[in-house]
Amino acid sequence: MSTKDGPQASRRGPYAKSAERRRAILTAAHAVFAAHGYRGGSLQDVANHAGMSQTSLLHYFPSKSDLLLAVLNWRDSITGDGTAPPDPEESLADAVLRQARFNEDVPGVLELYTVLCGEAVTEGHPGRDYFTERFDRLRRSYARQLAQLAGEGRLRPGVDPDTAAASLIALWDGIQTQWLLAPGSVDMAGCLRAYLDLVLLPEEDQERASAGAPPLAPLG
User: Taking the model in full, what pTM does it have?
Assistant: First the structure.
């Protein structure tokens, strides 16, 4: 038994060490890109932060653009990339508010996203396709859920699901930027909740509509 376990243990060792070094590089790159952006953060900065040489870093990530995409995908593994199907037991509003609150408690996540998303509008930025596809995916996902709510009588009259979906994403990103510039100055979840209350009818209004009664007047 010991003879068999020995080679297996030795084979696992290098793989474990390699995975650990990759995580160290991604953690360092996450911090560097969040603080300085992709343009301003160099591979040497990342290597210094990770405590290794740039040559060693390039062994794991052959180029800076490869590293950037790996960091973005790693970020998605922490917060989600918008592709996961909604929990059938969780409403759209509850899912949005849960994610907003979660993001506030993960150090560097909002900084990285906001800095790199802003940079990605510039020509030739390697993250441009990532953010373009992400926004398209999120718009389609939210629009699909809003259209379903419309079919259930939960969308306010005159609200277009596609427009509401794009507006929700724009509001979320804008509120995040304000929150980053002055933490505590805005209530991200509260602002998102207020917007969703404007486009969605409460369940009691749906029940009243089914019974032929007019909806309740909004508070305030």
Answer: 0.78
